[in-house]
Amino acid sequence: MSEEILINVTPRETRVGVVENGMLQEVHVERASRRGYVGNVYKGRVQRVMPGMQAVFVDIGLERAAFLHASDIVRPPLAEGVEPPVGGHAPSISELVHEGQEIVVQVVKDPIGTKGARLSTHLSIPSRYLVLLPHAKTLGISARIDEEAERARLKEVLGALIGENPLGYIVRTNAEGQSAESLAFDVTYLGKVWRVVQENIAKAKVGERVYEELSLPLRSLRDMLNEDIEKVRVDSYEVFEKVVKFVHKFMPNLDDRVEHYAGERPIFDLYGAEDEIQRALKKEVPLKSGGYLIVDQTEAMTTIDVNTGGYLGSRNLEETVYRTNLEAAQAAARQLRLRNLGGIVIIDFIDMTDEEHRRQVIRMLEKGLLRDHAKTTVYPMSQLGLVEMTRKRTTESLERQLCEPCPACSGRGTLKTAETVTYEIFREITRAVRQFNAEKLLVMASPKVVGRILEEESTAVAELEEFISKSIRFQAEEHYSQEQFDVVLL
Ligand SMILES: [Zn+2]
Fold first, then answer.
1. Which of 401, 436, 469 finishes a domain?
2. How many whole angstroms separate alpha carbon 453 and alpha carbon 419?
């Protein structure tokens, strides 16, 4: 298996592609317009204490002062011998901070409109499998890891790794099933990051950033770079330098894998990645065997329908269906990852009678999902050939990131036919003349609908005019969508 990461940088957009054996398997997109401050840590100064709101405004160098509530401030540790306050009374804001005080804060919510950013002093710094909580002493495990045995194993592994380490950790969902070695790597990585942050805090001035949530290229390498990745190619020299520095600092044994790509062809033309992205936005996925998949993402779930192409013949029907299903299982696994589809997924395979064939198709699907970074669970095939599965992911699907619902059909994917719209217009006319007084009517609709009415419905229009004793004029409007029309009384 040869594995490669491509990083494509333009001023407003960065894309990361994961290529395995010459095929694009994963794509991540980050746009400047959506990039905020969340996750960044700043050295700030308390500008104003507002006892009434139990909050303070903090200057962190952004346009507007940021907001910090008492409940988001780490309580100072109690001095030795001091009893905790009776009834667990929360300290008031003025007991916690005072005006002019320097304070290290993390942005938890971006500024919106006239509202400043929201802050917390409970810092959290993520790695691939862990989150470091420098101010907590807890070891927490994501509730989404639900197997007791696995929780116990992770607790034991982490306990041994962090030992007397006074920092807190949370084990992220994607740590499930990870080796002690991978987790040890993360503990070391976070230790290094935290040392750098502390150094930054020591020398930073008020309003300076001391930790920045990683940009997409670095975040991707943090989460994906390992021994198996042969090459990381970056088409921007500036980002290449940052990437090399980052990898050298945190994964020094892998820094020789990073290359600056200065080729003539756009980097996403390598391995046909650009075309793959275009194809990943289509519903239909052709299979080599002549069959195809129909991938449909709805609010509740994703469905993948497997179809054979055309007439199969009856001689080797079971065998042909089996071959198509095998190819479909492989293609479905790849599409889920490429399109970053999550939640419940239902794959509707073509009916097979042979038990062993059914088992092999499931096995092929599971094999295809092995390399997915997101956690997947596959359930046995039902009598009707349906396979239910789940795929966990943390970001929007590729389609939701790159597309918006079609305004012509409001995302349904189909439009009312010109005929349907014609009869809606006729109903609207009879309703309107009953309600309002008018001499004449003007109907504005799309050229296709108006064309159809004039060509095919002239008799109906004449009858309608007679019935309402008014004349109707139809006017084609270029910019009207097929479903859109207006009935105007003149
Ligand atoms: Zn549409």
1. 401
2. 8
- 413 found inside a domain: no
Quote the DSSP letter at residue 174. Answer: G
On the 0-12 / 13-18 / 19+ scale of CB atoms within 10 A, 213 is: middle
Distance 113 CA to ligand 1 centre (A): 32
pLDDT tens for each residue of 255-312 = 899 999 999 999 999 999 999 999 999 999 999 988 999 999 988 899 999 998 776 6
> CA nearest 230: which of 251, 252, 253, 258?
258
- Centre of ligand 1 to C-alpha 456, Å, is 25
Q: How many CB atoms lie within 10 A of CB 394?
A: 10
Task: Judge contact between 277 and 266, C-beta under 8 A.
Answer: no
CA of 432 to the centre of ligand 1 (A): 29
Question: Residue 411 falls within a domain, yes or no?
Answer: no
For residue 341, how far is its CA from the centre of ligand 1 (angstroms)? 20
Residue 304, beta-bridge partner list:
295, 347
For residue 404, the CA-to-ligand 1 centroid distance in Å is 10
Q: Are residues 23 and 125 in the same domain?
A: no
b/e sequence 32-45, b meaning 16+ C-beta within 10 Å: eeeeebebbbbbbb
Helix 447-456 vs helix 458-468: crossing angle, to nearest 10: 90
- 82 occurs within a structural domain: no
Q: Do 389 and 346 fall within a single domain?
A: yes
Q: Separation of 174 CA from ligand 1 center, angstroms?
A: 36
CATH number of the CATH domain containing 140: 2.40.50.140
Please give the distance, rounded to the nearest whole angstrom, from the Cα atom of residue 430 to the centre of ligand 1: 29
| Centre of ligand 1 from the C-alpha of residue 424, in Å | 19
State in Å: Cα 405 to ligand 1 middle: 7
Q: Residue 1 pLDDT more than 80?
A: no
The structure's pTM equals: 0.72
Whole-number Å distance, alpha carbon 399 to ligand 1 midpoint, is 14
For residue 344, what are the domain limits? 282-401
229 Cα: distance to centroid of ligand 1 (angstroms)? 40
* CB 412, CB 452: distance < 8 Å: no
Please state the φ and ψ torsions of residue 46, each to the nearest 5 degrees.
Answer: -70, 120
The pLDDT tens digits for 305-351 are 999 877 666 667 888 899 999 999 999 999 999 999 989 999 999 99
Q: What is the pLDDT of residue 444?
A: 94
Residue 448 Cα to ligand 1 midpoint, Å, equals 16
